Prior knowledge:
Elements: H1 3-32, H2 43-66, H3 70-98
Helix pairs in contact: 1-3, 2-3
Amino acid sequence: MAASGSIGVYKAVFAVLGVLMVGTLVYTCATDGSPFRPELLTPWMVATLIDFYVNVTAISTWVIYKEVNWISSVFWVVLLYCFGSAATCAYVVAKLFEIKTSGPSQDPLDLLFLRMKIF
């Protein structure tokens, strides 16, 4: 598959994952109410929250490295901490749209991970 075709597949996959996560959150809040209830704070929930925030911190470190200015870094990090997986998928899709396949001979998907301005 051509590089531009695979990037299109990745865009679609991450967009679907992001929409799935938003739908899951909306459905759960609508059917079960607020997640901020004391009876939900079991040891497993605490472990899950710690795991989530460790992962968000790791992803935020990459976002801060990847972004070219502090304003966009702060914007994305706040979204990551507030909206988790949905924001992660949105960030990846946004970065995939910045990749131009007519550029260098390097695999365009490698550019997703590098810190460089993509024209």
